[in-house]
Amino acid sequence: MPSKRFESAMAELDHYQERRRALAARFLSNDTPDTHPIQTGGVDHLALICSDLEATIRFYTEVLGMRLTRIIQNRDEPSSTHIFLDMGGGNQLAFFDFPEKGPERTVRGVGSMHHVALKARPEQFRSILETLEARSIEHSAHGSRDTGSIYVRDPDGILLEVTTGY
User: Fold this and answer.
1) Which is more confident, 78 or 105?
2) Cβ–Cβ < 8 Å for 144, 100
C-alpha cells in the first residue's frame, strides 16, 4: 500500500504533467514552416563567462576538438577578453573573462543557463568519449558508444551535453 507521502508526490507530478499538456495545446504549432517563417537565422554564438581563459581554451580545443577562431577585447569591459570557438555547423561558442570582478560563481536561477547541448555524429561522439576516458575526466554517458548523450562539466562547472540526437 503506497504511503501518503508517495501519493502526494505522484499527485504533484500529475499536476506538472497536466501543465505540460496545457502548454503544448496552447503553444505548439501544427502549422507548416511556410505559414510562419522563422525570423532569425539560428545561433551566431553563445557567450558564457569563464574564470581562466587558458584552461577554457585547452578544454574546448583539446577535449572537445573545437577550434579557437578569434580573441578580442570585450566592448563593454576593457579588462575583459572575448574569445570565440568554432562549434561546427557555422556556430560559435564565446567566452568572456572578467579579471577585475573576481572569481564569484553565479547561482542557478531564473535567467541562468542549465546546459549547452552540442551535436555530434557517431564518430565524433566516440572520439569525445574516448578522450574523456583517456584523460580520466568525470562524465556520464547515456546510450551506446555510438549514439546517445554524454554529460561533462568544463573547468568552470558549465554543464555540457554532447548528443547524437538519438
Assistant:
1) 78
2) no
Domain holding 106, by residue range, is 45-163
| 102 neighbors 94 (Cβ within 8 angstroms) | no
Question: What's the CA gap between 79 and 5, in Å, rounded?
Answer: 53
Residue 119 counted as domain residue: yes
Mean pLDDT calculated for residue range 114-127: 94
In the DSSP assignment, the letter for residue 148 is: E
Tens of pLDDT, residues 20-75? 999 999 888 776 566 667 788 888 899 999 999 999 999 999 999 999 999 999 99
CA distance 83 to 61: 12
Q: What is the CATH number of the domain that holds 103?
A: 3.10.180.10
Residues near 15 by beta carbon (within 8 Å), at least 6 away in sequence: none
Q: Are 159 and 144 in contact (CB under 8 A)?
A: no
